[in-house]
Amino acid sequence: MLRWTIIFIVLAIIAGIFGFGGIAAGAAGIAKILFFIFIVLLIISLIRGRKA
């Protein structure tokens, strides 16, 4: 999932450089959502891993 976040961040940067503001904002928004989902899943897996 972190790979998809990085892909969308790079896409947003490239789109921003070429002047596609709407696409850049959309890709950055998707990257932000994926990053927060990744963080939540990481915290859950750390908590569940300690109980074993």
UniProtKB/TrEMBL annotation:
Q: Which UniProt keywords apply?
A: Cell membrane, Membrane, Transmembrane, Transmembrane helix
UniProt KW Membrane keyword: yes
The protein's superkingdom reads: Bacteria
Q: Does the keyword Membrane apply?
A: yes
Segments spanning the bilayer are 7-24, 30-47
Q: What InterPro entries does this protein's entry cite?
A: DUF1328 (IPR009760)
- What is the designated name of this protein? DUF1328 family protein
